[in-house]
């Protein structure tokens, strides 16, 4: 925008400027990229990315003002993350708030705007030189700086990362950051227990399309040492091989020497595969030994599975555990076949008499009610719309009427709710009211402020992908196998003569005699 154009809009309000921006985006969307030359297309692509990056920072400025004023409460939201998640529908609210924490200019207790923690990174982002991915990579590097570094060294490190990052991709930023960390603390002498405790983590990622899960994290030295003992011993060649029925289970010291030698000779697994099988065997042994106690959040401390009876009979489909893991039906059957494993399986047939209606006699749900809730529609996760916390991490919420208001601990009045969402139920504005839908699922509605229209009731209902796929597959097959339309019939000579004769008769009737 030229200087004169900037002066023209200085006096405009922010809402009107965003309206102009929205109109301009509409005009850009309607413009034809095919009319540009090659040079113009390259320039437009660069300008677009720069604008996208700048818009991210400008959006953070607006959010800071919303948070400082508490304006997010007008929407009924009680926390920053709730507003960013449900009102703005930000893709990754945790990462967005994390970037804001490092780059935004928040209001201090004195009423003044304080400088960002990473001022050079913030300036580069404002110029459109760094996008969200670049900033996330820089933050990943800078959070690894040892606490023992002097303040001026940390400042210089942040400035260095800001200068080099404007020319690098996010992956290259992480690589360059590793070199910087090696330069600042080559011998690891500045890293202490506080740094290790701060950085310890373990993430079990979501299952992919093949139902596989990626495990990643940072282990402190003692945890790594213990894990290495397990992997080296239980993952020895020939041990705990699920593909070999003759492979010894457990620790090598308990195995027959000749049996182990023969199994090792047949073992064609890679080292990584042996480590995986070792960890699986070690965890299975721990579950078999009941080292987890009798239960957790009302559910048994073991593998609890729900599956469709037809899937079990046909050996197709999958089952779902209380922790949210999807198991192929073959593995469900294998788990049940292990006599030493005490598994719970809901198959909706041949059930036992379990008291599910406790009225006012008991406030907390029983184990039978927890299992029945898990096996009911929507019982796999927290019932709050959009929440994916599995049944093993939820509480039982009195959805129809709160316990304090006379609610009953009956199965048809309970709903699974994770601790965070169970705490936001209440009668005040911004809190939530709950109830039961016609299909037994629970609905949630955010309470509006006085005088504001009532919010809609929402249900945490995920689409049935399998049913939708089958429907589309049948429709596609009907379209493919639909018989071709009959070709237009060409009239014969006799029919043509008949039509011409009828037209001639009509003309003669319309002619009056002279």
TrEMBL record:
Residues 237-272 are annotated as: Disordered. It holds the Pfam family DUF222. Residues 368-423 form the HNH nuclease domain. SMART domains: HNHc. This is HNH nuclease domain-containing protein. The lineage of its organism: Bacteria, Bacillati, Actinomycetota, Actinomycetes, Mycobacteriales.
């Amino acid at each position: 925008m030229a200087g004169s154009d900037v002066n023209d809009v200085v006096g405009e309000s922010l809402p009107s400027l965003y309206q102009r921006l929205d109109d301009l985006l509409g005009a850009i969307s309607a413009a034809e990229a095919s009319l540009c030359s090659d040079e113009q297309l390259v320039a437009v692509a660069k300008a677009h990315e720069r604008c996208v990056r700048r818009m991210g920072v400008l959006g953070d400025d607006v959010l800071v003002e919303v948070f400082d004023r508490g304006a997010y409460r007008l929407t009924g939201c009680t926390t920053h993350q709730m507003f960013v998640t449900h009102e703005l529908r930000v893709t990754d609210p945790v990462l967005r708030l994390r970037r804001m924490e490092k780059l935004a200019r928040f209001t201090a207790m004195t009423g003044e705007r304080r400088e960002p923690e990473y001022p050079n990174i913030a300036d580069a982002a404002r110029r459109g030189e760094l996008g969200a991915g670049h900033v996330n990579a820089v933050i990943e590097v800078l959070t690894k700086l040892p606490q023992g570094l002097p303040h001026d060294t940390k400042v210089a490190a942040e400035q260095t990362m800001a200068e080099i990052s404007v020319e690098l991709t996010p992956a290259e930023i992480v690589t360059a950051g590793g070199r910087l960390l090696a330069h600042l603390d080559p011998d690891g002498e500045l890293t202490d227990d506080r740094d290790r405790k701060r950085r310890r983590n373990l993430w079990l990622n979501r299952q992919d399309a093949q139902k596989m899960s990626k495990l990643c994290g940072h282990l402190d030295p003692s945890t790594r040492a213990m894990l290495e003992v397990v992997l080296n011993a239980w993952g020895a060649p020939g041990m705990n091989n699920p593909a070999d029925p003759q492979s010894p289970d457990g620790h090598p010291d308990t195995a027959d020497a000749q049996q182990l030698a023969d199994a090792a000779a047949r073992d064609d697994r890679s080292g990584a595969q042996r480590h995986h099988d070792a960890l699986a065997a070690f965890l299975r042994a721990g579950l078999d030994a009941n080292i987890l106690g009798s239960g957790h959040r009302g559910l048994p401390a073991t593998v609890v599975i729900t599956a469709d009876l037809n899937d079990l009979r046909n050996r197709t489909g999958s089952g779902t555990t209380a922790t949210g893991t999807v198991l192929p039906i073959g593995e469900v059957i294998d788990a049940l076949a292990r006599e030493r494993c005490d598994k719970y399986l809901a198959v909706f047939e041949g059930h036992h008499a379990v008291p599910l209606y406790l009225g006012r006699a008991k406030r907390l749900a029983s184990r039978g009610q927890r299992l029945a809730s898990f096996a009911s529609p929507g019982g796999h996760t927290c019932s709050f719309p959009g929440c994916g916390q599995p049944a093993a991490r939820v509480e039982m919420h009195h959805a129809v009427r709160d316990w304090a208001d006379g609610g009953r601990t009956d199965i048809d009045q309970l709903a699974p709710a994770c601790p965070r969402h169970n705490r936001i139920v209440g009668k005040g504005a911004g809190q939530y009211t709950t109830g039961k839908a016609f299909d037994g699922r629970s609905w949630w509605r955010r309470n509006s402020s006085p005088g504001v229209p009532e919010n809609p009731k929402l249900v945490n209902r995920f689409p049935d992908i399998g049913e939708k796929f089958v429907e589309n597959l049948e429709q596609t097959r009907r379209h493919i196998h639909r018989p071709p339309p009959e070709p237009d019939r060409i009239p014969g000579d006799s029919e043509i003569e008949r039509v011409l004769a009828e037209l001639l008769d009509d003309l003669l009737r319309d002619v009056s005699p002279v």
